[in-house]
Protein 1
Amino acid sequence: ETGVTQTPRHLVMGMTNKKSLKCEQHLGHNAMYWYKQSAKKPLELMFVYSLEERVENNSVPSRFSPECPNSSHLFLHLHTLQPEDSALYLCASSQDTSGIYEQYFGPGTRLTVT
Amino acid sequence: QKEVEQNSGPLSVPEGAIASLNCTYSDRVSQSFFWYRQYSGKSPELIMSIYSNGDKEDGRFTAQLNKASQYVSLLIRDSQPSDSATYLCAVRSGGSNYKLTFGKGTLLTVNP
């Protein structure tokens, strides 16, 4: 266990549904990240938060909406997704965004959009 | 666009052999280089980082960096079946402290 938990681990949703992914880190870190991992594609950085402030929005469609209420919790709100959004969504955290410290990944949420 | 290229494999080696995983990157100002291991159905786990030209050894793992050739590699000595996983190369460019660009990964299979 890395100290980063994600729920749910698996999610199937229709294109008209609204759902949320949750990430929690128990490491006392100040930076949190959302990544998308699709089959046959590299890991893609989606969002970065530093001390609850968003510092990166990597050209992600607005149907993905992140929320960081405090430095330990990160959410990804999903609505009107497309089948091509089916992927593994990984949360990560690090001590800060300086780049000096390792990013620790959670186990991921396997999302299927039908 | 900054890219990180890896041979997708699968790379198959017998138990006890040396596995050699390669990665090239396009951004010349890249500063930091990482190897992550990802078991099937699991999340990536950092196994090596390297920042300067040359070799860095940690147990059975050796990372090699050649910035002039924009090339980084990972050698796994005395490969074990438990090393069977996908190995992801990640590069942090000089333009961002925290942003990692990942390759697609190389699937390694170590046969008993």
Protein 2
Amino acid sequence: DAGVIQSPRHEVTEMGQEVTLRCKPISGHDYLFWYRQTMMRGLELLIYFNNNVPIDDSGMPEDRFSAKMPNASFSTLKIQPSEPRDSAVYFCASSAQTGLLNIQYFGAGTRLSVL
Amino acid sequence: QKEVEQNSGPLSVPEGAIASLNCTYSDRGSQSFFWYRQYSGKSPELIMSIYSNGDKEDGRFTAQLNKASQYVSLLIRDSQPSDSATYLCAVKGGTPLVFGKGTRLSVIA
């Protein structure tokens, strides 16, 4: 399996621009998670989906952030408008619900820089 | 608010020594516990999982769980410079994992 695939790997944009991050989960996984990682705050859960349905978006910092999962093999995280404080590494992860052992597999991440 | 606490480090150990990484969690209902390793500039990768009290060994790694004390630890025996990374403790009560901020380990050759 190719693992969780994220694109782009790096994104540099100017303040006020729209940014779209993409994720393809591992085939057969029914959970998808979006995280943001910074030195100060560590790894923060933004939102997660189960069977393409958003379950908990309480971690989304502001209305500028939105996420969709139109089908089982694709999800997007959009920031509009972007701000310098959004600069971070954004990870997508997926998992299959298997009782206690709910292992999350991470993508390589998207490093976002907002100038 | 479910919390997972780790000492941020850095924890420095000489090559060949035992590295001991610790983690405490607040949710007494937590059922599964994970250790992820994250190299600089890379994504977290799972190295150990445990859900029963006691020890679980996998090669040079041993995870220890004490649910009564709400404490989980990771021991790395015969530490190598390649073990230098940030180690994230993650705890599962409900569906999403709750991650600690990680402990940075430096193994000195």
Protein 3
Amino acid sequence: AQSVTQPDIHITVSEGASLELRCNYSYGATPYLFWYVQSPGQGLQLLLKYFSGDTLVQGIKGFEAEFKRSQSSFNLRKPSVHWSDAAEYFCAVGAGNTDKLIFGTGTRLQVFP
Amino acid sequence: NAGVTQTPKFRILKIGQSMTLQCTQDMNHNYMYWYRQDPGMGLKLIYYSVGAGITDKGEVPNGYNVSRSTTEDFPLRLELAAPSQTSVYFCASTGSQDQPQHFGDGTRLSIL
């Protein structure tokens, strides 16, 4: 069965520091992979997606993610975090041909000034 | 640009009451979804639809019903509200497999 694991429930970083959020997936075929961000009281906003091609994908707000098939990972990175990046981040994998998404349990990012 | 609109934003129900959570999208998307989000659990798929007149169960469908009479609307019905249904509910839509899902702002539902 498909699954997504985000091993870090909560991460705290200082503003200006680099960030890496981990995501591992289990899926039999080449997956569609997504990172979403959720600010408090808001819905989910797409940061970036991977379908095929270049394994390093660029997203909005200066985020990037790298698909590593050998490690079944799709980690999210940002070189310098801003206070406004504090939010919850969800990794998701597309399953099957009905566009169902399987979400990880999320990583809450806290940013200290 | 409206996107995906959910109403109401907040609601408190008594056990055993019924209600319908509304979801409408103006992007002419065929695929629509209902999720619930509980703390520390991520999003769980309740029901989804691949087009008007077609619905199917997701991971956690018990206690819910849906209908899809039009492309735009995908209401979620709770017939007999239970405390376990206290959650934040999100509706989402997408046009195709190679496009991301667009989410509404959610409905926060408390059942007391």
Protein 4
Amino acid sequence: AQSVTQPDIHITVSEGASLELRCNYSYGATPYLFWYVQSPGQGLQLLLKYFSGDTLVQGIKGFEAEFKRSQSSFNLRKPSVHWSDAAEYFCAGGNTGGFKTIFGAGTRLFVKA
Amino acid sequence: ETGVTQSPTHLIKTRGQQVTLRCSSQSGHNTVSWYQQALGQGPQFIFQYYREEENGRGNFPPRFSGLQFPNYSSELNVNALELDDSALYLCASSLASGGAGELFFGEGSRLTVL
């Protein structure tokens, strides 16, 4: 069955430190992969997406993600975290043959001063 | 460009009642998907509408139903509400049907069932 897994329920990083949020997927073929961010009481906003081509994808707010087929992973990274990055982050996957985007359970990011 | 708007933002119902949630899709988008997000969980796919027809459905019972109108706005109806239906209901519009396109989300309707 198709699935997206985020192993970390929550992560705490210091402001200015680097960040990596993990995401693993299980699909029959290479899916379309997304990272969304949700601030408290808000809907989800797209950070970046991978469809094909270059495996390192740049997104908004200084985020990037790397697609690794051999590890079935699509981890999100940021070199220097700001306090405003504190939010819930969701990895998601979809494909052209299906009709839905599947979301992981999310990772809540806490940023300490 | 108008984004995705949902109404109402919050509502409280009692078990057994019925509820209708509304969504206006982003301008030019012909596909609407509905998701249920329980507290502390990721969004779970309910169903998708493309050009006024249901295009796919997740693992939700028939008491969850929907409509899409000619202007691509949409409704989610839930009958015989249960306590476990308490959640944030998210509407997302997109340019492409299926699971390949970017989803544009509204801020959600938070339903509490007592």
